[in-house]
Amino acid sequence: MSPEGTWDLTIATPVGRIAAVAEFRRLDGALTGTAHGAGEEVPLEQVVLDGDRLTWKQAVTRPMRLNLAFDVRIDGDILSGTSRAGRLPSSKVTGERRVLPDSSR
């Protein structure tokens, strides 16, 4: 199970749904990535894949300054799980991997 690629995420927060994009790649054997959303791009930290479970942390400043911790499960090109910001309640996260067009045609 590999998370590498670009994922379109939806985070269902108490103040509404937030759309974001997460990109995962391997660099020197380690998973790394970036997230885009709300007009900012932030690095993903502590990206860990354990079986089908993927966890990472990121800091955002929009819509407010938060440190987020994600814990999701990958099933093919679909992921689902939660995002948590400190002591706030968990938010449901869903996502779908972008499929590259077939260039062999």
Helix content bin: under 10%
- State the low-pLDDT regions, or none: none
Largest sheet: 9 strands, antiparallel
Rg is 14 Å
Within the largest sheet, what's the order of strands? Answer: 4-3-2-1-9-8-7-6-5
- From the N-terminal CA to the C-terminal CA, the straight-line distance is 26 Å
Give average pLDDT, whole number: 92
**Fraction of residues in β-strands:** over 45%
The count of β-strands is 9
What does this 3D model show about the protein?
The protein has 105 residues and is mainly β. The chain contains no helices and nine strands. A nine-stranded antiparallel beta sheet has the order 4-3-2-1-9-8-7-6-5, with no helix packed on it. The mean pLDDT is 92.
Give the secondary structure arrangement, pairings included.
Layout: E1 5-13, E2 16-27, E3 30-37, E4 40-43, E5 45-50, E6 53-60, E7 66-75, E8 78-85, E9 91-97
Antiparallel strand pairs: 1-2, 1-9, 2-3, 3-4, 5-6, 6-7, 7-8, 8-9
Task: Report a brief summary of the structure.
The protein is an all-beta fold and 105 residues long. The protein is built from no helices and nine strands.
Provide key terms for this protein.
9-stranded antiparallel beta sheet, single chain, 0% helix, mainly beta, 105 residues
